[in-house]
């Protein structure tokens, strides 16, 4: 009876667009769904540093190196805000990291693809950050307060990321024939995986119904994917590049671009741990965690020493 009352009051708050805050009552499934989504989002930001991080030492100029360094640092910051937001729901950072390392928690499929050329840095900014913004701007209005507030800053930074990616590709596209071919090759490899970032079709999306009712998600996976295709198809014209999809065609009646079939078999293989770089990415994260153990130990020892000193002064 009481639970029924609490659930009704909770849904009324959601319907009235009142943000849910950490100390408010919430259904356990709402809490668990948020922990799942926010922690997976945080893991994606941290694992997402790896494909671009590999190019910092090989950037073609000081300017490009500075931009890439700043972008990769931003992704680290996003991961940290998101881990903090998830912690307000009662899970510890250590538990989340353990779930990533054991394979229990997912991270975005996109980061399991290799970065083969410099043009991939442009393609990631334009397409991957572009898809991230399309999905994350509505999350600024998500129903859980700490998540929605974290997303406001994240989206501002992602928008700079997308612009730098587009500009970097534009420079390549206006360069030599070889540079333009390199940009086209990067687009060919990143296009379909970018569409997969939005998740399975709505009919196969197991979490969507509850997440939409709770206003964690404001738009469905397919709606956001369609908006992304419509945006990128126009931007590709400015670059003079061709999207690798023979079925891409403006549909006057729908007012949207039609596009070809996504290879869902590939998507589920990558999500299941069998993508081109899954093992490499997880190994890199585990090694970073182990190599950083002394820093965490030193920080705890320092905090303990300070607390002991303060207690001694007070005594
Ligand atoms: N990869 O029922 P749904 C970034 C899983 S950050 C792997 O539709 P949901 C920044 C899903 O977890 C990119 N797994 O799930 C950056 C679920 O499995 P589960 C990350 C995926 O949660 C840029 C199952 O499939 N962004 O790019 C994927 O309602 C550049 C069924 O799916 C976010 O995390 C996938 N692509 O909708 C960094 C945004 N898609 O958990 C560096 C927040 C689905 O039940 C460089 N997250 N799955 O075991 C979301 O908006 C949602 O979680 C979705 C998925 C839309 C991703």
UniProtKB/TrEMBL annotation:
<dbReference type="InterPro" id="IPR011881">
    <property type="entry name" value="PaaA"/>
</dbReference>
<dbReference type="InterPro" id="IPR007814">
    <property type="entry name" value="PaaA_PaaC"/>
</dbReference>
<dbReference type="GO" id="GO:0010124">
    <property type="term" value="P:phenylacetate catabolic process"/>
</dbReference>
<dbReference type="GO" id="GO:0097266">
    <property type="term" value="F:phenylacetyl-CoA 1,2-epoxidase activity"/>
</dbReference>
<dbReference type="GO" id="GO:0005829">
    <property type="term" value="C:cytosol"/>
</dbReference>
<dbReference type="InterPro" id="IPR012347">
    <property type="entry name" value="Ferritin-like"/>
</dbReference>
<dbReference type="InterPro" id="IPR009078">
    <property type="entry name" value="Ferritin-like_SF"/>
</dbReference>
<dbReference type="InterPro" id="IPR052703">
    <property type="entry name" value="Aromatic_CoA_ox/epox"/>
</dbReference>
<dbReference type="Pfam" id="PF05138">
    <property type="entry name" value="PaaA_PaaC"/>
</dbReference>
<protein>
    <submittedName>
        <fullName>Ring-1,2-phenylacetyl-CoA epoxidase subunit PaaA</fullName>
    </submittedName>
</protein>
């Amino acid at each position: 009876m009481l639970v029924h009352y609490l659930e009704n009051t909770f849904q009324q708050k959601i319907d009235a667009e009142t943000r849910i805050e950490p100390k408010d009552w919430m259904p356990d499934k709402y809490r668990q769904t948020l922990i799942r989504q926010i922690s997976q989002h945080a893991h994606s930001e941290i694992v997402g540093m790896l494909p671009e991080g590999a190019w910092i030492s090989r950037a073609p100029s000081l300017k490009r190196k500075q931009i890439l360094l700043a972008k990769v640092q931003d992704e680290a910051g996003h991961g940290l805000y998101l881990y903090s937001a998830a912690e307000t729901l009662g899970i510890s950072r250590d538990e989340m990291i353990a779930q990533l390392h054991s394979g229990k928690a997912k991270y975005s499929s996109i980061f399991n693809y290799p970065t083969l050329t410099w043009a991939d840095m442009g393609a990631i900014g334009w397409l991957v950050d572009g898809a991230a913004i399309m999905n994350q701007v509505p999350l600024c209005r998500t129903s859980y307060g700490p998540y929605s507030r974290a997303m406001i800053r994240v989206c501002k930074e992602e928008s700079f990321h997308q612009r730098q990616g587009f500009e970097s590709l534009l420079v390549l596209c206006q360069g030599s024939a070889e540079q333009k071919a390199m940009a086209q090759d990067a687009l060919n490899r990143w296009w379909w995986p970018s569409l997969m970032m939005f998740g399975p079709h709505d009919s196969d999306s197991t979490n969507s119904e509850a997440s939409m009712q709770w206003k964690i998600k404001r738009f469905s996976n397919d709606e956001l994917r369609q908006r992304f295709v419509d945006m990128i198809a126009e931007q590709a014209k400015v670059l003079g590049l061709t999207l690798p999809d023979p079925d891409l065609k403006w549909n006057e009646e729908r007012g949207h671009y039609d596009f070809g079939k996504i290879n869902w078999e590939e998507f589920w293989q990558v999500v299941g741990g069998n993508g081109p770089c899954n093992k490499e990415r997880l190994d890199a994260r585990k090694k970073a965690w182990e190599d950083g153990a002394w820093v965490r130990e030193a920080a705890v020892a320092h905090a303990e020493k300070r607390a002991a000193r303060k207690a001694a002064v007070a005594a």
